[in-house]
Design a protein that fits this description.
Elements (H helix, E strand, L loop, with lengths): L1 H15 L2 H10 L4 H19 L12 H24 L5 H8 L2 H12 L6 H17 L12 H21 L8 H19 L12 H25 L5 H8 L2 H11 L7 H19 L1 H4 L2 H7 L1
Subcellular location: Endomembrane system
Membrane topology: Multi-pass membrane protein
Protein name: EamA family transporter
């Protein structure tokens, strides 16, 4: 079951890496952040609840409090979409994904605060490697970061925070409930959040714009249907740390897709930084073998 769970999380993360292609195309066609998010969440809501139809009877056995918890967890999916897609309005997709990947060390802080897991030496080493990777990937040394709009950088970092929260809550909220139902309730929470945030866009929403729905279908599938569905099915069967490692596949997928489809240039220096970020994830999750676990040291003493 652990192998299946790991595979599901891997596919879900890889899928999310393709979102910049559709989002950037949507912006190029003149659609707003609100329009893309609303259309995406409506499509995802319909598709996931259609998939939940065979399990309809199970809804009656799902506690009301569990529904609220899962919807609350799902709202982090909506927040990630808002912040991540919003960042791409101001900065290249390759930079937006680098900022999103700060969820690695943010996830460490979340575990520290909520699970009372104090960071060990290996985690601080991983953090140092991550920050070094960010410096190279963002071309800070050559002044590249300074040229980026502050709004894009802030939104990118906020997307990292919400994505870290999604990874944490996807494995914590009612893990015993059917994964399809969990995903449906998650996207329900996301849809409600998006409708509230972009309430001003609702009266002028172009319902009959076929191209908007087509682009949003692509965004919905790779950004709001497959990731939560596969995470909901896989995350409860693996550790949060393993989920973080597997989620790292999103970074190279997004970078390569930005290069090939969006024609964005990624320098060797940036690739080096991206490699360091990926390496930091491996160190963070497997470095106990190198540095030794503090728990063992405490037990020995």
């Amino acid at each position: 079951m652990k192998k299946k769970g790991a595979l599901l999380v891997f596919i879900g993360a890889a899928s999310f890496g393709f979102t910049p292609i559709f989002v950037k195309h949507g912006f190029a066609e003149g659609y707003s952040l609100g329009q893309l998010n609303i259309a995406q969440m409506i499509i995802a809501f319909v598709l996931l609840w259609l998939l939940s139809f065979p399990h309809w009877k199970d809804i009656r056995h799902m506690k009301y409090t569990d529904r609220l918890k899962v919807m609350g967890a799902g709202s982090s999916v909506g927040l990630t979409s808002i912040f991540y897609y919003g960042a791409m309005q101001y900065i290249p997709a390759s930079m937006a994904i680098v900022l999103l990947f700060q969820f690695v060390w943010i996830g460490m802080l979340i575990e520290w605060v909520f699970l009372k897991k104090s960071p060990e030496k290996v985690h601080f080493v991983s953090l140092a490697i991550t920050l070094s990777g960010v410096i190279l990937a963002s071309e800070v040394l050559s002044g590249g970061m300074g040229e980026l709009p502050a709004a894009g950088v802030i939104l990118g970092l906020l997307s990292a925070l919400s994505y870290a929260a999604f990874i944490y809550t996807s494995g914590q909220a009612a893990p015993e409930v059917n994964s399809v139902l969990r995903s449906s309730w998650m996207i329900t929470g996301s849809l409600l959040l998006v409708l509230i945030v972009f309430s001003r866009d609702i009266p002028t929403f172009p319902v009959l714009e076929g191209e908007l729905w087509l682009i949003s279908l692509g965004i919905a599938m790779v950004g709001a249907v497959i990731p939560p569905l596969f995470f909901a099915g896989g995350a409860p069967h693996i550790s949060a740390r393993l989920a973080n490692i597997l989620s790292s596949v999103e970074l190279p997928v997004a970078i390569v897709s930005a290069m090939v489809v969006l024609k964005e240039q990624v320098t060797i220096l940036q690739w080096t930084g991206i490699g360091l970020i990926l390496f930091s994830i491996v160190v963070n999750e497997t470095g106990d073998r190198w540095f030794g676990r503090s728990e063992k040291k405490k037990a020995a003493s």
